[in-house]
């Protein structure tokens, strides 16, 4: 999937990119057979992304389901706790995890693409720009790499997102099984049924991921530089992972706000039927007009809670996986407090 560094070096010589681990970070990589920015490194990051995104999204399925239902019908529940109480009373544990299977599959695939390709594009763009330029414009590099990765990740996610939303927001059970739901969408709408929400998904996920990665990287850097007394490499793995969790939650709050209107549109697109001859674009415009300004922000509170928690644990799982593989945690470098 990922070209080797030898192949990439043809773009701009075999120079060392600024994102390579510094000698001060050796304690994290000395016993690891994985070379930073090698193909094996990218595959390891992709595997960490599977765990980070798949497990966290699945764990928060109840909150995600309530958020989707409130976006489709904002008067359905008074709030997240009211929704949890009503669903658990009426449908039990099974009802809380409605749509869990496509959530687990879809976001595992998305995490693989998101984290694996982020590291790959970060390396690629740093080599194309050159070490000095890449170091000077680190935030631009983070934004470009994360946006590129998310374009690919969403193509992998979109079919499962369509099934998940249909299962969670249909007034009558959409399908009795995961495979039954796939067959039902395919029979009724064909391939378009799985990908009609791709553009709105991009509109939701690309800004979300750009904020997620850039804010996380800059927050980690700021914590070590301005709030802690020692360089990153002088802290234990546990302390570094604590920084990871804190920076992840901070990034998640911004992610939720930036991407929420598009998230509402995705939920409605997979719930509202097209009129005869109506295009997906026309349907989206109609939905936005019906929702109004207040409507596109419905469900924001549970989504902030969900995305903040989700993003924090995603980064925590991802960095924990890297540490177990003998790699350094993400971000921070060895910047010293001035």
TrEMBL record:
Membrane topology field: Multi-pass membrane protein
Keywords for this protein: Membrane, Mitochondrion, Mitochondrion inner membrane, Repeat, Transit peptide, Transmembrane, Transmembrane helix, Transport
Solcar repeat segments: 40-124, 137-222, 239-324
One GO-annotated biological process of the protein: mitochondrial phosphate ion transmembrane transport
Single GO MF annotation: phosphate transmembrane transporter activity
Keyword Lyase: no
Compartment(s): Mitochondrion inner membrane
One cellular-component annotation, GO: mitochondrial inner membrane
Entries under Gene3D superfamilies matching the protein: Mitochondrial carrier domain
Primary subcellular site in the record, as a coarse category: mitochondrion
Family, similarity comment: Belongs to the mitochondrial carrier (TC 2.A.29) family.
Entry protein name: Cu/Pi carrier
Organism the protein comes from: Coemansia guatemalensis
Gene: PIC2_2
